[in-house]
Design goal:
Blueprint lengths: L12 H5 L36 H4 L13 H12 L2 H13 L3 H29 L14 H31 L20 E2 L16 E2 H10 L15 H18 L3 H27 L4 H9 L9 H15 L5 H6 L8 H34 L14 H10 L5 H34 L5 H16 L7 H45 L5 H24 L5 E2 L2 E2 L2 H15 L1 H12 L5 H8 L11 H9 L3 H5 L1 H5 L9 H4 L3
Length: 646
Amino acid sequence: MAVSNTKEKTTNRESHASQQPVGFSNSGFVQDNGFSSSVPALDRMVPSVVQVSPMAMDDGQAAERQTWGNPVEFLMSCIAMSVGLGNIWRFPYIAYKNGGGAFLIPYLIVLLVIGKPLYFLEMAVGQFSSYGSVKVWEMVPILKGVGYGQALATWFVVTFYCVLIAISLFYFFASFQTILPWTVCDVNWASFSTCYNSNANSSLTDFNTTGFKSSSDIYFNDEVMKKINSIDDGIGSPDWKLSLCLLLAWIIVCAILMKGVESSGKVAYFTALFPYVVLITLLIRGVTLEGASDGILYFIKPDWPKLLDVNTWYAAVGQCFFSLSVGFGPIIMFSSYNSFRQNIYRDAMIISFMDTATSFLGGVTIFAILGNLAHESGKNVTEVVTVSTGLAFVSYPDAIAKFQYVPQLFSVLFFVMLLTLGVGSAVSLTGCVVTIICDDFPHWKRWIVVTVVGVIGFFSGLVYVTPGGLIIMDIVGTLGGDFIIYLMVVVQTVGICWIYGLDRFIRDIEFMLGIKLSAYWKLTWAYIIPLVLIFIFCYAMATYTPLREGDYVYPSAATGFGWFLAALALLQLPLWAVYVVYKQEGFSVIERIKKSLKPTKDWGPRNPAHRLEWHKTQNPHYVESYASRIWVPILPRFFPRLFNQD
């Protein structure tokens, strides 16, 4: 179904009611799955006849915004974005690094009180305004730098996401060999003397494996990445094979992005659903291996003292952001292509559940394999492999090597799965950057923007396919990803709930969706998210230790590069704030700052008819009173009798 560019016409009460999301009743009351109370339906909130003025028709060029072919394409695209490499590649690595079960409990709590509310918040903002992650800050212009800071963090992350696609392509092509190259030790390997086979025919019962590594471990680190243990003398030169795979990865991503949501929405059907087929197959194989129970037990058994370590919670929040892609901008971008009345509340619930389930599924699979490796090597689960970003490329291939029949087939299927996960994540992240550029420069042709972004992305990614690339990837992921997004999410939440106004934002959502939001959403948005994130962040920074891998501390020059990337993104906040204040009309700086804290005339529903309806429902108290937009809208919602407000 082609992308539709719709111009919504004047509607009466009956046609307006037909646009309500699935599950909305015409009785005047709706339920929020147990979280909500009754609320008047939309037809009681807006006039029965909407008249569109000629001036309103010129507002925002509503008819030119692309939309999804159908709501399912949006849902599948969000699943492909959120249920991706963050779950299958990064989650097991972060869980293994932070003590398995000791990490799982904080992660689940963080998903409930931070991840899920943030996901719905970003969906609501994007759909309400039909803007990308930069122009959406027409609601609080002084915070426009949040969008650009998030875009930079997104760009830093997508450069190494495409490298993960490149590694998957490398393994995919290697899977067509008669004998999978990582299943047996090769006499030509430099580490051949300390290698033991990973295949199903290996028997290590009477073999002392102390000081030995599996063939899958050596193949990835020594033969694919040519990893070096120290970058004190430099990171080395890019590997030509991985460089070609990286080029192919960017060609795939750019080809999907050329036509916008028209093509990416249809690709999402495959990228969202196919991975589950392969992952469940690997799960079944993993849990049937000897020693698998030891690994799974390590994954689910809590280490209670570790729960008191704030760094574990810091890692859980960072993983939540990577897993759901909150704070990066793609959620706002994707939802901006929705129709105004789409039921994103339902979509947010489905996606957050799928994300949690997939992380758990990937974690059980990985730790079952680690349990088997520990059983075979006689080591503890915590010592069986090196804690690095390449964990998934060691553990999963090791499980494939254990298949007795046609392991090549399962290998091909698995790496096709990793490709689909990587492409789904990379397309959404790169698409966010492309959307920002196209929104700022609407006259630029999309295919040119995509091509330039792809070329820059390819050359930026070459640093990760060097022998020291995995170390650089860890630094960029920590400082260029986690660190930036932490602060951007805090500013984003404070800007929406405490400057634009929580009550005002809630009313916007009620107007758009026709549902009554419970105290759960208000408490998490206004208080829990900013306060918890600020506390964890400050504590983590106060107890900061230099980044390391095992006993090796990364050189100051490398970590300095990571801090430079973080500073570059964070500087967007004051720089754009100064620019916005400077561009405001007014005689004094205070007057200009006040105007910069108020929504611009371009803020609101993009469609002229919806905009007129929305303006008629606005409370003049919030529009005219600056102070009330910051403080009063928040407290009356919890203490209506005290403030004598509805």
